[in-house]
Amino acid sequence: MKEGAIVIDVGINRVEGKIVGDVEFEVAKERASFITPVPGGVGPVTTTMLLKNTVEAAKLQAK
Questions:
Q1: C-alpha to C-alpha distance for 47 and 55, rounded to whole angstroms
Q2: Alpha-carbon span 51 to 2, nearest angstrom
């Protein structure tokens, strides 16, 4: 990983009963200028966009 990179971790995995991302957070945070945590990173944005797209699809189906 390039020094100063911005890391947006969108992966969701269960390891030893914990939810983790695809990026090894503790290692990446030493080189990244910014990194999203998992859980608590982009999840709310993903949920919001899924709901928005579902509402738009329902509106299109109603026409």
A1: 12
A2: 34
Q: How far apart are CA 46 and CA 20, in angstroms?
A: 16
Q: First CA to last CA across the chain, in angstroms?
A: 48
Q: What is the pLDDT of residue 2?
A: 94
User: At which residue do the structure tokens 């509106």 appear?
Assistant: 59
Distance CA 3, CA 54 (A): 38
Rounded distance between C-alpha atoms, residue 21 and residue 41, angstroms: 10
Which amino acid is residue 38, in one-letter code?
Answer: V
Structure tokens at 2: 């390039």
Q: What is the pLDDT of residue 3?
A: 96
Q: Convert the pLDDT of each residue in 3-58 to its tens digit.
A: 999 999 998 899 999 999 999 999 999 999 999 999 888 888 888 999 999 999 99
